[in-house]
Amino acid sequence: MMDTTWIILGATSAMARATARALAAQGAGLLLAGRDTNELALIAADCRLRGARMAEAVAFDARDPATFAPLLARASGEEGELNAAVFTGSMPPQAEIDTNPALIGGMLADNFTGPAEFLHLLAPMLEARGGGTIVGVGSVAGDRGRLGNYAYGASKAAFHTYLSGLGNRLARAGAHVVTVKPGFVDTAMTWGLPGMFLVAPPEAVARAILKAARKRRNVIYAPSFWRWIMLIIRMVPEPIFKKLKI
Amino acid sequence: MIWKTLEYSGWGRALKVTGELARPERRGDLLALPPAPAFGLRRSYGDAVTNGGGRAIDMTRLDRLIAFDPATGLLEAEAGVRIGDLAALFAPMGWLPAVMPGTGFATIGGCIAQDVHGKNHHNAGSFAQHVTRLTLLMRGELVEVAAGTPLFRATAGGLGQTGVIVSASLQMVPCKGAAMMVTERRAENWDEHLAMLDNSTATYTVGWIDGTAKGEALGRGIVEEAESSTGLVKDHIPVATVPMNAPHFALSAPIVRAFNEVYYRRVPARGRTSVKPVGAFFFPLDKILEWNRLYGRRGFHQFQCVVPLASAPALREMLEEIAGSGLCSPLAVLKRMGPGRAGYMSFPMEGYTLAIDFPNRDAARALIRRLAGRAVEAGGRLYFAKDSLAEGTAMRAMYPELSEWRDEVRKADPDGNLITDLVRRLGLRSAA
Questions:
Q1: Could you tell me if B27 lies within 8 Å of chain A, comparing CB atoms?
Q2: What is the ipTM metric for this complex?
Q3: Residues 6 or more apart whose Cβ sits within 8 Å of residue A50
Q4: Counting runs of H as helices and runs of E as strands, what totals does chain A give?
Q5: Top-level class of domain B179-392
Q6: Does A246 fall in a domain?
Q7: B25 vs A188: CB contact, 8 Å cut-off?
Q8: Per the structure, how many domains does chain A have?
Q9: The domain spanning residue A80 has which CATH number?
């Protein structure tokens, strides 16, 4: 791992922090990207003390494409294998979206268009180096439009489809894309929400992510039992699904 | 959402409360919260870590290492960092936290707020004696607090009443490696047990005591002495989780007697020396996650007192009463303490400390109250980290620097925003 570098987008999220820590323990270099640079500096120092070869805070805002180029330039200066993991995302409550549909645009930028535009700029670098891994964190919510969060789910579904196509493209150059679909994870996003069950710690998702990257898996659910839950949810016929409040 | 309503408790699970908890994920989230008492992984047994019906802050996500100087061993870290993680990370590099409590799941913030002690208290003193400075969130401001100042002495062992401990600088101690050389010897009775503790010259010394042994065997146990060591050892990681509450007979008297007999005999009569992972020596119970469920739905209490050296006979009488009650669990510890303490409300005093777990039953609660009375008579003191039953007047009398602590706390938190259930129950902040 000593010659690998990971760009972590949305690095202040709980899942991203757990992943960055696990990568730090392996000695990887880390570019920790996000909006809260004070917080990122704390995380970077922590990663360095836990074994990272290099860890730096870099400003990045999924809604501000002007922040993409400096991060890409910084990454291009690192030799060796270049990887990226995308944790950016937001989930306004569906009820707020119902009263203010204008929220959809920003959410889409956080969950799909921002990361996709960034990854599109990054892809040629991986192709030129002939390798590397991109991990995109989607959500089980992207597997079907449910009453409680279908706008959020739609943004994640778009990201899944994008990652699928990007994986197809990068495979030709020896690079790899992993789509991660977490279920309920114990983060700020789920803290105090009603109806949560089988909530996984972020560290468990981080372990699953790194294992999937190592084994070059294409799509994983984290924790893995969500594959079966979502299989059932996807199989419910639409006429019946429309009557369910799940 | 910021506030999550849930039922929670301390490690003993005997006092369950419902309240609202915030768990900030970022430093900025913490600074934006209204003032409320804070806690870490809630390894205190009783109500020091609850605020029933009110709000509290869970600090476990603010757990970053901030800076480390490999030349001096000075580490700055956030309050949510676990002591066990520090040991696992730094022991291979030749450093250990100077003081480690019996569980690696205790956080730095909790270790300061209870000024905890470890198996080396007789020569290293208490946890906060190795804290050189800390950062406190006090009345909405981040305040730097240097060791030795009145505010520091009110914060060390201060039960979180001066502010939220955000980060601290710890002076770690050099170690040889990630292993411990541990010598275990049987102590056949009380007098031998105390003599072995008194005469120990080891860096780390602790006695496991068989709380069920009576008569000639009263006070028998195993004295463990340890030194840091090099060597190749396995990582100390959890091997199992207790999946659910155990039935009430799981720790009934015959089972505990049988367990203790086996546990005592497992060490050969001539003693033995072995090399163990650091975690296996310091945090033996961390191998089993959620072991507190072994005490069943009703939970348990731990009684821990310290009495002056001259009161050893009184402690022996307490042990007689415990052994006669048939209520004791396998978890019982005897240790000789030194005088080291960092705060006005710190637990340690030079003497002997006895810690024993009891299932939460009427008879056990009555026994603990009688033991508390005996501790007072012996000039001893009970430990806030373990207590959930003591009576305020007696408890306040055990802490002679209470008024100094109150003066600082009154300035730091004039509106009483940081009061916890324990502070309320014992009337620690009320003017006497």
A1: yes
A2: 0.93
A3: A21, A24, A25, B65, B89
A4: 10, 7
A5: alpha beta
A6: no
A7: yes
A8: 1
A9: 3.40.50.720
